[in-house]
Amino acid sequence: LAPTEMSSPSLKTGAYILIGVGALTMLMGFLGCLGAVNEIRCLLGLYFTCLMIILLAQIAAALVIYFQKETLKVELSDIVVDLIENYDPSDEEKRNLQDAWDYVQTQIACCGWTGAKEWENNEILRNKSNTEYPCSCSNRSKDLEEGGGFCNLEDPVNGTATYADWPVHEQGCMDGVEQWLKDNLGIILGVCTGVAVIELLGMILSISLCKNIHSEDYTKVPKS
């Protein structure tokens, strides 16, 4: 069976939005600096418009995440399960994606999306009777030094080994990620609020500069 595409409509849309916001931010910074230094009202106006578009895009993204969180969870689950089933340390084409998942499992101390049992469906582990296990899932420090790939069971197992025989974390990464978000919700909201405040200040500053330039231009007009 060919592996399914490692993407989803919602994640693709989110990626395109982030790319667009990044490009717009670069353009915005250039226009803002140029407009402020040379006192060009139209550039300051474009700077204000760009900031407003970015702020509205962030609000829209937050609303989409909030109202479509169950859909996003299902789509992300499909992607991760497919990644686990086709995980292959020798596959250079998927190296970045696999390294990212190894990093998640290592940092959150979790295994699989809902649990380690999902790794039993991996083709490589299944062909080796599950006598190996993902190193990034391990609860032993010496396995974590490997960073990724598969580690061998040290204790022999009669017959086919199962995930219960692996020295890995029991918690699935879905629960781990949700718990991490809950624990760091205050920091996340604080950063988002800070960014929004900075953007609003930038909008206010650009309006103030435009008014000052307009006032200076008005005073320079010779009276008849």
UniProtKB/TrEMBL annotation:
Compartmental location: Membrane
Keywords, ordered alphabetically: Membrane, Transmembrane, Transmembrane helix
Cited CDD domains: CD37_CD82_like_LEL
InterPro entries: Tetraspanin/Peripherin, Tetraspanin_animals, Tetraspanin_CS, Tetraspanin_EC2_sf
Keyword Iron-sulfur assigned: no
One GO cellular component term noted in the UniProt record for this chain: plasma membrane
Membrane-related topology note: Multi-pass membrane protein
Signal peptide boundaries: none
Keyword Transmembrane helix: yes
Segments passing through the bilayer: 15-37, 44-67, 187-210
Entry's family note: Belongs to the tetraspanin (TM4SF) family.
Protein name according to UniProt: Tetraspanin
Organism, as annotated: Certhia familiaris
Gene name linked to the record: Cd82
